[in-house]
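Fold it.
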Amino acid sequence: MGNETLSYLRIILRRWWVILLVLIVTVSVILFTSLRTKPIYRAYVKLQVIAAEPQEVSLFAQARPVATSEEIVSVQTQFDAALRSAYVAWQTIADLNLGISAAELLSGLTVSAEREFLNVTFVADNPMLVESIATKHVENAFKYYAEIRAKPSAVTLQFIQQQLVFEEKRLTDAQVALLAFKTTNSVDSLTREISAIQDQLRDLRLDRELLVVEQKKAEAIAAKYLEEAAATGSTESAVNYQRLAAAQDATVAGILAQQQEYDRLISQQEARLVALLKLTTEFDVLARAVTRVQTNYNFLASKESEARLKVDQATNVSFIQIIEPARMPDRPAPSRTPKMLTVGALVSVILGIMLAFILEFVSMLRRPTPERS
C-alpha cells in the first residue's frame, strides 16, 4: 500500500466523526420523512393495443402500408401522450372534484409498455380515490385520444362535404344545360335518334325500289296489252285489250304517286339526319360534361362515406381494450424506506468522505508556515 493511500486512510480515520455525523443526519431525515408520510396505495389498469386502421382518407393514391408492430408502437406512444396531457388531468380533477393540480395528479402516474400491452399505474394515499383516479383518467384519455385520432378524418370529411356541394351545383347546371338542348331539339338520345332515322331511310329506300319494280312490271303489262290490241283482228278484243292496258296505266300512275310520297319522306328524313348530325358535337360536349361531373360527384360521395366510417371508427377506439380494470387495493404499496435508507446511507458516506477531505484541506491552509532562519 502506497504512502498516498495511507495518507488518505489517516485523514478518513481522523475525520471519522464527520462521516458518521452526515450518515446519522441523512438516516434521521429519511426515517422522519417516512414516519410522517402516509401509506401509499397503487391502482393500475392494463390495456391491450391491436393494430389500427390508418385514419387518413386517401383521395388520390393508397397510403403506404405500415407494419403491424410499428402501428402498435405508434398507438401506444400517442395514447401515452394523451394520458400525460394536462388537459386530460384537469378533466379528471373536475370529474372527481379533487383539490389538487394537474401536475400533482400526473406526478402519481406511471405508464409502461410491454409488447402490445400498456400498464397505467396511479399512486395515492387513499385506496378508494386511487381506484377512481385510475378508472376516470383512462376513460378521459380514451375520449381525448379519440378526438385527436378522428381529427384527420373529420377535417377530410368537412373538405369532401364542401366539395360535394360545389360538385352538386356543377352537376345540376350540366344536367339543366343538357335537358335544355334535348327540349329545344326534341331529342332524348341523339345516338338512338340518328340510328332510328338511318333505319327508317333504309326501309323507305327499299320500299321505293320495290315500287319501281312494280311500276316497270305494270308498264310492261300495259305495253303487252297494247300490242295485243293492235294485233287482234276483232274490234271487241281490241277494246278489251285497251281497257286492260288503261287499267295498268292507272296502276302505274298510282305507283308514281307513291314514289313521290316516298321521295318526300326520304328527303324529309335526310334533312332531319343532317340536322341531327350537325348537333352531334354540341350534344357530345354537354353529355361529356354531365358524365365527368357525375363521376366526380360519385367519387366524392364514396369518399364521404369512407370518411364518416373513419370518424366513427376513430371515435370508438376499439383497437385499445381494457383487459384488467382498476381495482381498489387491499393493502398499501411496499414501502420504499429500506431502499431509500440504503441509497441514502451510501450517498451520505461518500459525501462525508468528501467533506472530511475538504476539512483537512482547509485545516492545512490555516496552519502557520515555519519561518526560515
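The first strand starts at residue 41 and ends at 49.
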